[in-house]
Amino acid sequence: xxxxxxxxxxxxxPKLFSFRGVVVAxxxxxxxxxxxxxxxxxxxxxxxxxxxxxxxDEAAVVDVQVDDEGRIHHxxxxxxxxxxxxxxxxxxxxxxxxxxxxHTGQHMLSRALxxxxxxxxxxxxxxxxxxxxxxxVAALDERAAAEAExxxxxxxxxxxxxxxxxxxxxxxxALPLRRQPKVHDNVRVVVIGDFDVSPCGGTHCTNTxxxxxxxxxxxxxxxxxxxxxxSAGVRARTKLSREADVVRALARDLTCGPEDVPAGIEKLRRxxxxxxxxxxxxRGRVAAAIADALVKDARERGERVVIGVLDDASLDLxxxxxxxxxxxxxxxxxxxxxxEGGTIVLAARGSSSDFDCGAFLxxxxxxxxxxxxxxxxxxxxRLPAGIDxxxxxxxxxATPGR
Length: 402
What we know:
Blueprint: E1 7-8, H1 9-12, E2 18-29, E3 32-37, E4 39-40, E5 54-56, E6 59-66, E7 72-77, E8 86-91, H2 93-117, E9 121-126, E10 131-135, H3 142-157, E11 162-165, H4 169-174, E12 189-192, E13 196-199, E14 214-222, E15 225-232, H5 233-254, H6 261-300, E16 305-310, H7 315-326, E17 332-339, E18 342-349, H8 357-368, E19 371-374, E20 378-383, H9 389-398
Parallel strand pairs: 1-4, 16-17
Antiparallel strand pairs: 2-3, 2-8, 3-7, 5-6, 5-8, 6-7, 9-10, 10-15, 11-12, 12-13, 14-15, 17-18, 18-20, 19-20
Protein name: Alanine--tRNA ligase
Keywords: Metal-binding, Zinc
Cofactor: Zn(2+)
């Protein structure tokens, strides 16, 4: 004979953190041993809200799930208590309070986004590390998001009462629901002051002040619509505190007040841009000097293939030297630069040359135990450190298949 469902004590009192219940069945849920109780204050994962944690007597409750028939499974770590045994249930209070703040905060933010931006909530997820709301709009600007956030926190400051109850059918029809219920029987409704009315079976705060604070952490496009990442309660305060620590650290490094950090960073950005431009000019002069010397040497020997090794050269410098060399259309540049972790190599040809750079570099890299390739006009690769590039390049040129 099937055992009845557990009586959900969390519906009557979301702040019930200790209770006694009787073990009515041993089960296996998703391959894990579990127990069912005649009554429970443990909220199972449902409706986007994470499951409670805690203890049954001395056994740790590591997960709580509800099956398709509405039966609540308490997954335990360790031996299961005997059927018929009365056990003491203890809810992880900090975790529950976080879940309550997040869930109530989500209802409030969904209402605010609908009011401010006409952005209805499609789904929500209250995760271990992040909470998200997926909206039915393709765009949401920062200004509208900030307005919605401010509206939510104003309602929090109002300390509005929150009521969760099971209305009669007549009462349900008269309620201004933000969205339609997903079930047809025993519909539970959460009313947040005169701000929001929504069907929901989750655990919620009993007044808006308990939410503490709601903040939008980010906006992103997701599957063609908008996703809002947010935090509430302790989690929001923790994130805000960590960000404040970062700002204070930046202020110390920039020797300015926290409010002047943006201006200080902008000043650093301008200085960095100027330094990059100056470096580019210096690199251009260095590249020109190196290229001119290599070209002069090759011309004096009557060669059109310029082989060179640039010590401690970046890929940008190697490219710049190659560009200077191949500006003379009949020349080919076969260059290497010693870099951390290996040797960077580049082959490039001038506009009037028919040299196949890709084929050459592929053969040279294979011979040297590296990798490389590219187009006939230009190719790049990386070889093991310490390779004698001039010898490898000369040997590759001398072999058939050029």
